Amino acid sequence: MAPSKSHFVAFLLIISLIVNVQSIRITDDSSDCTFKGPCHRREDCYKRCGVKPPSHAALCVPYGVQGLVCCCL
């Protein structure tokens, strides 16, 4: 039995809500991140965050219209 179009639309709606909630959680001001300036790659953030590579304590994350910024955990 093939899934109907309404099942497909409901599935897409649920996935988009999950992605939206996750992106809000990343850019939330109450998060554990300390934002330390712009970046292009994760490697750009190691020095800014004061950690040695490879480290999961330095991330390059999207932040509103400012583009990518370093997030130090």
Automatic annotation (TrEMBL):
Q: Provide this UniProt record's keywords sorted from A to Z.
A: Antimicrobial, Disulfide bond, Fungicide, Plant defense, Signal
InterPro entries, sorted: DEFL
Tell me the superkingdom of the source: Eukaryota
The answer on whether this UniProt entry bears the keyword Disulfide bond reads yes
Q: Which Pfam families match?
A: AtDEF-like
Endpoints of the signal sequence: 1-23
Keyword NAD found = no
Similarity annotation: Belongs to the DEFL family.
Its protein name is: Defensin-like protein 270
